[in-house]
Amino acid sequence: MPTRYEWTRFWIPRGNDVYVTDQGYLEDPTSRFGQSMNADLATLDDFAQRKCVVMLGEAGSGKSTELREIHECAARTDANPLLVDAGEYPDIVDLKNDLFESEQIETWKNGDGQLTILLDGLDELLLETPRVIRLIARNLRELPVDRLRFRVA
Fold first, then answer.
1. CA 11/CA 17 separation, integer angstroms
2. What is the mean pLDDT of each run of 10 residues along the chain (153 residues)?
3. Are residues 25 and 19 in contact, defined by beta-carbon separation less than 8 angstroms?
């Protein structure tokens, strides 16, 4: 099992710049100097109220770890999380069934609670990625999105 470091990961909204030290390190974002250098840095908790968050980053940057942590936290509450690893699906039909037609999804659609969908491994689909994105966009239109949070890595 890979080493897991218990550090806080920081994310930045797309299109914003990140400033690093001369050695290439991120200045501590919690320090006064770090806050002034990178005021837009945030933890995923800071994005919690957003309906959709897409995490982009290099392999090993912590995207999957963050999704698992969101799942664990949501599972301890009544947030009804659904974690799907797209990289484990050899067939787009099976992925569609688990994402949009599972018993958990049907129960949620017919209820009034919140649902958090955590989709990991979208980049592992390679040539299927454009088809999966179209599938997601098409099927999201059928869901009560006012009660949905969607996280993708």
1. 11
2. 74 85 88 88 82 83 86 79 89 89 92 91 77 90 92 90
3. no
